Amino acid sequence: MHRKGHLLGATSAWTVTIVLYYFFSGVDFTSLDVKHSVWMILSFFACHFGAQLPDYDVLWKKFLPHRNVLTHSFILPILFTLPVYITRKDLTGDFVFLVPIFAMYLIGHASHLFLDLGPNKWEGTALIHIFWRNEEGRKTMPPTSSFLFLLINGLIILAGGIILLFFFSRWVF
Ligand SMILES: [Zn+2]
Question: Structural domain boundaries of the chain?
């Protein structure tokens, strides 16, 4: 999946999340104020950033092979989001703002992993790269493990995003 596909995936994930979020929130649409549009815009960018971040590994080729266990797993997203999650109760005023935006970053990141589940062929760069060699002398997981790795990590990140978005409700309403 290339950059365009991931951006499109992010737009879809963002749209679906916003629609579901407001649908289940039971918000009174006649009383929406400006903060709703602000978080929508910022979260849109956060979601698209998240959807592209895993493939920034091509920029760090020297250290990280493409589709490696670090960028295509929950490790980076959880590291980025942990401070926000831990301090969520202390976040007041304008800072509460960070919570939903990080949630949308996570959802974008998850969308990347889900889209990576459908390569043309499970070989070469489509496989998850590890930092050590397996028995065939390659530094990749076998196809089934690569698929499961992406799926499970995508689900964990998505769950993190949904949980974080849930905490957002006290800011919006
Ligand atoms: Zn990828």
Answer: 3-25+40-172
